[in-house]
């Protein structure tokens, strides 16, 4: 679906944001970040290629006039239009797909992944890939590949059902290749994975530089998600092989990679990214928009804000809360944030866990709030229990509001908090409860920690720093692309945005 919004302006750099499951169709930290970039740079032209679920998701952000177009790429809606390949085109596509699959399951053939991927991209552009992957021939090719002698996946005895499942998952994952890629400017993938596919196609066809920003480590989150996915190992081997090789290709070909923390940088370097092409750029908030939250609630309260999702590990938070309440029976836990479509079962499971532990009346799911500051002000201590994060907005927003925090040691959390909050291991209810009890029992410490947290945000993590850094990057990449339409590597310091422009 194409939504035309504003008119293009001549002379302004063009930036195409590549998103998945976020801006402009949903709320959440990454969407907030995208909105900050767009609204903070009215002097640039923006477009969005948004990978969504069904394609029926409404646009939930008010788009300014310099967003000229939104292209929606549904992964799970109706199959995109196309026609089956025939004759020589069919034979060439079948050969490319066989090389593609071989790379996913045979370590000695991984060098064939990128050429095969770009051949598939060409077929997707011509409307041939989707119909081919929905044809029996694709199933036959996969069964032939993963039953070759010597491959580890063969030992798991893949079934026809496995082949059908893996082929369907790949067909959906490759749908973004059919989106019309940008032909000029900068393609900015705001996550790794399938969102980067149109950017890779734009680089391959038109020399458009690819900028990659990872808030969380996409590949790590796929590993976590597929750990409990209801698929047999042969299916997981194919799909996770795709995500791993896609991550490596994206790291290798990006003109610049801007992780939101040093933790992500380590994953990217391990995935093959050139250290010279990596520049850490922290998320920022406007301290004036998140002023000190004011008096604490009279009743001792732990608050949490975010998307109700398994990666936020609310089960650990609820179990920790039960341990806290065994010591302080009047404590409450207030949870603020929406539940994504399809996540209702997870929320209901969390509610059932609170009831099972005997604390249903003290744990409240309050949904989205009109002003997120109210969520932080609602707690004496703000909690973060995630098993994976990048550089979480909810954490630095709570810090800007002057609230003491207890957070799990994932992603860039420790970089954000420093000495201005307590950090505990993930999936450890005992450690989380102990930290929460420390702060709930010590008002003076909470107050001092909250003051230190706000000062840390003002000094290091302001929105102005983030906007100025990315504006400079967009101009540099755009200018370099005009001079040399090929892979561009900018010389970059290890970390950008500390100790300057703190207003």
From TrEMBL:
<protein>
    <recommendedName>
        <fullName>D-inositol 3-phosphate glycosyltransferase</fullName>
    </recommendedName>
</protein>
<feature type="domain" description="DUF3492">
    <location>
        <begin position="14"/>
        <end position="275"/>
    </location>
</feature>
<dbReference type="InterPro" id="IPR047691">
    <property type="entry name" value="PelF-like"/>
</dbReference>
<dbReference type="Pfam" id="PF11997">
    <property type="entry name" value="DUF3492"/>
</dbReference>
<dbReference type="Pfam" id="PF13692">
    <property type="entry name" value="Glyco_trans_1_4"/>
</dbReference>
<dbReference type="InterPro" id="IPR022622">
    <property type="entry name" value="DUF3492"/>
</dbReference>
<dbReference type="GO" id="GO:0016757">
    <property type="term" value="F:glycosyltransferase activity"/>
</dbReference>
């Amino acid at each position: 679906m194409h939504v035309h919004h504003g008119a293009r302006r001549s002379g302004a750099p063009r930036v195409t944001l590549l998103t998945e499951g976020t801006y402009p169709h949903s709320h959440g930290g990454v969407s907030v970040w995208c909105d900050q970039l767009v609204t903070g740079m009215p002097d640039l032209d923006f477009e969005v290629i948004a990978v969504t679920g069904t394609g029926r998701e409404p646009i939930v952000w008010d788009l300014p006039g310099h967003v000229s177009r939104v292209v929606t790429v549904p992964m799970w809606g109706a199959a995109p239009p196309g026609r089956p390949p025939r004759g020589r085109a069919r034979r060439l596509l079948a050969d490319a797909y066989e090389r593609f699959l071989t790379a996913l399951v045979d370590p000695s053939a991984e060098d064939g992944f990128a050429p095969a991927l770009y051949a598939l991209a060409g077929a997707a552009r011509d409307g041939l890939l989707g119909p081919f992957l929905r044809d029996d021939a694709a199933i036959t090719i996969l069964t032939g590949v993963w039953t070759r002698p010597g491959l580890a996946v063969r030992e798991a005895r893949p079934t026809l059902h496995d082949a059908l499942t893996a082929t369907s998952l790949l067909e959906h994952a490759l749908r973004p290749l059919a989106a019309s890629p940008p032909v000029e400017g900068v393609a900015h993938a705001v996550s790794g994975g399938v969102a980067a596919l149109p950017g890779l196609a734009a680089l391959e066809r038109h020399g458009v530089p690819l900028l990659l920003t990872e808030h969380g480590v996409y590949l790590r989150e796929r590993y976590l998600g597929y750990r409990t996915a209801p698929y047999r190992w042969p299916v997981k081997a194919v799909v996770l092989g795709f995500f791993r090789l896609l991550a490596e290709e994206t790291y290798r070909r990006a003109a610049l990679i801007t992780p939101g923390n040093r933790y992500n940088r380590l994953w990217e370097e391990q995935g093959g990214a050139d250290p010279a092409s990596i520049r850490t750029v922290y998320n920022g908030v406007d301290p004036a928009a998140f002023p000190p939250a004011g008096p604490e609630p009279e009743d001792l309260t732990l608050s949490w804000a975010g998307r109700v999702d398994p990666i936020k590990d609310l089960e650990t938070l609820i179990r920790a809360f039960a341990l806290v309440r065994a010591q302080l029976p009047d404590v409450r836990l207030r949870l603020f944030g929406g539940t994504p479509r399809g996540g209702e079962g997870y929320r209901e499971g969390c509610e059932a866990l609170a009831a099972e532990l005997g604390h249903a009346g003290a744990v409240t799911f309050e949904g989205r709030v009109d002003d997120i500051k109210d969520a932080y002000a609602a707690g004496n201590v703000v909690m973060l229990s995630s098993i994976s994060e990048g550089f979480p907005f909810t954490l630095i927003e709570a810090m800007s509001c002057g609230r003491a925090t207890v957070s799990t040691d994932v992603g860039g959390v420790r970089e954000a908090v420093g000495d201005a909050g307590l950090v505990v291991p993930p999936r450890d209810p005992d450690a989380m409860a102990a930290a929460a009890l420390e702060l709930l029992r010590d008002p003076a410490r909470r107050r001092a920690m909250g003051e230190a947290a706000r000062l840390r945000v003002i000094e290091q993590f302001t929105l102005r720093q983030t906007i100025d850094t990315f504006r400079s990057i967009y101009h540099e990449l755009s200018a370099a692309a005009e001079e040399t339409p090929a892979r561009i590597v900018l010389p970059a310091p290890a970390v950008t945005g500390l100790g300057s422009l703190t207003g």
